[in-house]
Amino acid sequence: MQKPFPIGRQLRMLNNKFRELGDRNLQKYNLTAAQLDVMIYLKCSGEEEIHQRQIENWFQLKNPTVTGLLNRLEEKGFIIRRTNPADRRYRVIELTEKGEQILGQMWEQAWNLENRIYDCLSKEEQEQLMVLLDRILNSLSEV
Questions:
Q1: Tell me: the pLDDT tens digits for 67-79?
Q2: What's the pLDDT at 63?
Q3: Closest by Cα among 71, 72, 79 to 95
Q4: In sequence order, what DSSP letters do the residues of 39-80 get, joined into one string?
Q5: What is the pLDDT of residue 15?
Q6: CA torsion angle for 6, 9, 12, 13 (degrees, to 10)?
Q7: CA atoms of 76 and 99, how far apart (whole Å)
Q8: Tens digit of pLDDT for each residue in 41-66?
Q9: Under a CB-based contact definition with an 8 Å cutoff, are residues 70 and 56 in contact?
Q10: CA-to-CA dists, residue 13 to 37, 75, 103, angstroms
């Protein structure tokens, strides 16, 4: 019997390597790649009010994981959480000025890492990879 293609292993290894390289670059900012991802999400939201549940859904993470990420970002002074006056059940999450400054400083480094992936693939391969990864993610999300 032939062994199955170890796609799960390859994806884990790719994720681990990507996080390792990202975390190494982010050490001087006292950030992890996961914390950076949240900060970028907040930055890209524009004027939209962002709540914790939106972060949980976007990154497909559980509440305790996101709570921990937000706690650490808040302790470092990169975000604030304030009560939404229109609905006190929700806390709005925002980047602080310090968070904006740090994000601006390391934006280029983050994109350099991302571009290392794109540089080894043609445009067609990039598009195909995204379609395949989305299909895998959707398939696993149905379970």
A1: 999 999 999 999 9
A2: 95
A3: 79
A4: HHHHHHTTTS-EEHHHHHHHHT--HHHHHHHHHHHHHTTSEE
A5: 87
A6: -110
A7: 9
A8: 999 998 889 999 999 999 999 999 99
A9: no
A10: 19, 31, 27
CA distance 102 to 29: 7
- Token readout for 63 is 């509440």
**Which among 53, 85, 87 is positioned nearest to 70, based on CA atoms?**
53
28: nearest Cα among 117, 120, 102, 122: 102
For residue 24 the two structure tokens come to: 């190494």
Extract the residue ranges of the chain whose pLDDT is less than 50: none
Q: Which helix (H) or strand (E) holds 103?
A: helix 97-119
**Which domains are present in the chain?**
7-141 (1.10.10.10)
Provide Rg for the chain, Cα atoms. 17
Residue with tokens 């390859």: 10
**Segment holding 91, helix H or strand E:** strand 91-95
